[in-house]
Amino acid sequence: MKSNKIFLTALLIAVMAGLSFAQKATKTKTTTTAQKFFDTDKSIEELRKELAVLRQQIRDIELRTSTPVIRKEINKLVPVPDITHEIILKNGTVVKGKIIHEDIDKIIVQTNIGQLTIFKADVRISREAEKPHAKCVLDGPITTKIFDDKTIYTGKIKNEGARRADFPQIRLQLFDDATRLVAGDSVIIAGTYHMFLSGVQTDATIEPGQSFSFELTISYPAKSKVSYYIPKITWEEFE
Hints:
The chain is α+β, with helices and mostly antiparallel strands. The protein has three helices and 14 strands. The two termini are 34 Å apart. The radius of gyration is 33 Å and the shape is flat.
């Protein structure tokens, strides 16, 4: 990418020099024919167009290289261990990772920052770690727009858990005064983009702490009397 920028910059300088030379030549050759003047003007116009294109290409390269971008393929190469154990040391330090080796006096733990060797004499508690989970909840009240044959429900879903929620959706069931089911429907919440290891791409994920809006329209027979609704939020946890 850097070599492309250097090449385009050099080419830009060359075109500007050619344009300057052509303009000077046009001013000095006062005795040329009308046809020659036409050719010179045409050449200058072509140089100006090429100059504009080169400037745009250089701006595009500067924009792409100004902010570092980590490709998702590179992310896959970074080893992130499964957290299977939690080790509490006598000094209060908590180490979370995966035990990959253990002998009579020490253990080796693979963590997010690399391998750590811990002497058993320094360990107070060693136990299996609880796996983090997502927890999607309503973020505020659900608002309604009621019509004769449908109701539009809008609200927000927030992930209060410790891991990503995949394909979160909310389902609403509508009931009348006699607790009879009138209608029901669901919608998947559009959130953050994610590409799974399988190559499947989606924008239906919610990272921990994030909140996204939803809108769900539920139709029912005209003049139906909806007394209340029950929301249910579900999600998946992949990888």
